[in-house]
């Protein structure tokens, strides 16, 4: 008999579920909850999308890895080294 | 990817560079700085935003690295090692900034009815994040949302999900337990999801 999870319990361990870090018996409870609960299906999908959005917004090319850094910065670093 | 080390030639090339650095060879230091500073600047800008402070963090990172060169045991590539040091230097500066208004994390976590079901039923996001990300304004708003997270949560999210350090590394950088890193990351992601939700409601018909 697989126990019924609440949405709160589902969300509390959602990161472990997504990472595949739950033991087999807990995983079955999570699978069952997902098959019965469209809200948690949407929550899980949007939780994962939020991670992608955060990552992409910061990594995307508005501010790409510069080909070079300001020469002033390079010289400042090298000068600071010899001052030590 | 954020964590892929910059191309620095062969392992043998890296070993030669390291040996020259340890001998105090000025040209080797210059080579190291020219090779790695663009990526370190990108890391610092992701954490601190554009501006002079990111450059200051890069300078601090290199000086820390120079001091620690003797202790570097080649357990990872120089680029990976420098990435971690730069992320830490940027983080220390981020911490010292006074936040004007930070949301309380509790206000950004999902709420439930007494029986543990969702209070507000989450809906799928339309259009997809991939489509929305094409818009410059959306990227700005996502960055602003990350900036709005309470500092202790924001730094874990930045290090784990953006800079892709592992849980152990983040725990050691922040001097907190691995379990606390996990808890904060999960809460930070939930809070970010809450902050981003209005982006999607606005575009729904």
How would you explain this protein's 3D organization?
The complex is a heterodimer of chains A (84) and B (205). Chain A has one domain. Helices cover 70% and strands 0% of the residues of chain A. Chain A is built from five helices and no strands. The longest helix of chain A is centred in the middle third of the chain and has 22 residues, at 38-59. Chain A is elongated. The termini of chain A are far apart. The model of chain A has no long low-confidence stretch (mean pLDDT 89). With 205 residues, chain B is an all-alpha fold. Chain B folds into two domains: 11-96, Rna Polymerase Sigma Factor, Chain: A; 105-203, Arc Repressor Mutant, subunit A (Orthogonal Bundle). In chain B, 67% of the residues lie in helices and 0% in strands. Chain B is built from ten helices and no strands. Mean pLDDT of chain B is 87; it is low at 1-8.
The SSE order of chain B reads HHHHHHHHHH
Q: Strand count, sense and closure of the main sheet of chain B? A: none
- The number of distinct β-strands of chain B equals 0
- Note the main sheet of chain A: none
User: Under the CATH scheme, which class of the largest domain in chain B?
Assistant: Mainly Alpha
Distance between the termini of chain A: 68 Å
Most extensive interface, residues per chain?
A: A-B, 45 and 57 residues
- Given as residue ranges, the uncertain stretches of chain B (5+ residues, pLDDT < 50) are 1-8
Task: Please state the average pLDDT score of chain A.
Answer: 89
Q: What is the terminal separation of chain B in angstroms?
A: 35 Å
